[in-house]
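Chapter review. Work through the record for CSON007218 protein before attempting the end-of-chapter questions.
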Amino acid sequence: MSEYEYVVLTVSDSCYHGSATDKSGPALEELLKQNYGSTKILRGVVPDDENKIIEVLLIFADEQKANVIFTTGGTGFGPRDVTPEATRRVIHKEAPQLAYLMIANQMSNLGADQKNKMVALSRAICGIRNQTLIINLPGSVKAVTECFEAIKEVIPHAIQLIINDLSNVKSTHQYVQSGFNSHQHHHHHRHHHGHHHHAHVCPNKTNSGAPDDRNSAFPMIEVDRAQDIIFENTNKFAPLQSFASGVDIPPFRASIKDGYAVKASGGKGIKKVLGYISAGDRINTTQLKDDECFKINTGAAVPMHCDAIVQIEDTKLITEENGIEKDVEILIEPMEGLDIRDVGSDLKRATKLFAHRRPLNTVEHAVLASVGQIVAVSDWKPRIAVFSTGDELLTPESSPIEGKIFDSNTTMLTGLLKDFGFEATLTRIIKDSKEDLEHALSEAETLGCHAIISSGGVSMGDKDYIKPVLTENGFTIKFGRVNMKPGKPMTFAFNSEKRIQFYGLPGNPVSAFATFHLFVLPGLRKMSADDDEEAKIRLPIITVELLNEKYSLDSRPEYARALIVSKEGRLFAEITGNQISSRLMSVMDADVLLHLPPRTDERPFVSRGHILKASVLKHDFISRYE
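Structure tokens for CSON007218 protein:
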């Protein structure tokens, strides 16, 4: 029987820390099974922490795309009872009548049970986020049961309306009207199709695919096509609501200059100084005459009965006592509104700040801070695992061992993720064994990783197990070779059921560096970007002139590491020495990846002055000016 997906989320500090046993969660799960039959139910426990509750609600709603999330607990009057506040920050639309139906059912059971009057202390709310219904329930088993009994008949109908399953709305109406029977389970309509996982193998004349074939069975595809395939298999996080300002900026009329607050009608001349106003002082409401003023600092609130600010440079001190100004002369005719920032002149209340993206950059965080918002969970990032494969690898802190090398790829890849605002949730060195790789994949899945970045194990060696292990574990290989240098073995796979991306980078450090920038970074950005941000997904591309006298081309398009020189506004690229894929030093000074065309009989090399495209690797991408 097809099914809907339900989440039971217990909100309790004591249950989360293990000092108490969760009873309401299992009770609710049993009620769901009794009333909705063989349905899919996910369970979770979070502490009474608003941000943690929000984070888990977003995961279940936006990633898991559950139909209904039931929270239990945290709806009372206590200082740690914040479930309604967290829910309100997540939902797009409220469903107040559901909450009313639950409270009405509890109140109807009052009778002689005076303890039930405590239902009046519940602040539970209900609402909708995208296609997920979120319902707050109290924390006791008795209250959970009473509340669920009140709404159990309308839940299937609510789901069908939310997901726009109109074909079943009529039958649900008939079903509800005929009386709800918990032993005749309603048919839900979430379809789960079986997936046959297979690699996309397209042998050509040189790749027979036979067991003794010495060539890769995967066709060589172009870089642009590989990027498109990644984008086609990228699930965007459901966008949060755009941020809007809850305040005016400035929230009061603010002085632009250090000077004197006056009435414009008083004109110029000598004024009596009534007092001093500093930034942060409350708005002064003193009535003043035309020949009176206040001394005021930049950013301070303009007094209620003043309408102009005269800067200090346009005044003259007349009298002073004990360092306190008593009289000043205004040397100009002040105009109404002079050097005053009006309320909301920088930003008006309810103005859209920016469309949500992840991760937020520094300026976006600053804008949010300026309107009193500090974002933690809503700046949630994809969870990413970073693997380095190979029996030969040692951690950098290990002692040298003959025949072993130090793993630099993990350090490089986790650092690159951090540079671009992401972070690694899991890092591991994986031995050349199927069992170790399968264990690592399972660990990444358990941690809820959205993307796995692995280096090594994707070439043609006897111990390169990546591709077969992926296919055996539910992944479809989307491509296994790319027509580029360095990085030909670049592999991308996708598990459509669990929605996990797998980026198989070559093991050579420079190859891993290049393929990260050309494939992994755009994929992660695509996962996190709005539809109108396509231009920001890939690295920016500039046009440069080659400085090297001569550079021999490869049979494949090459992405050479180069530094940029600026001469009188023109940009020149100088290739950084030996470009062998194992030489990490060629990356250290690189400002760009220089796009070199494949070799042809007519064009075996490029020379000084040749115009080329280049992908910019960093903000400060000019190494020197000449």
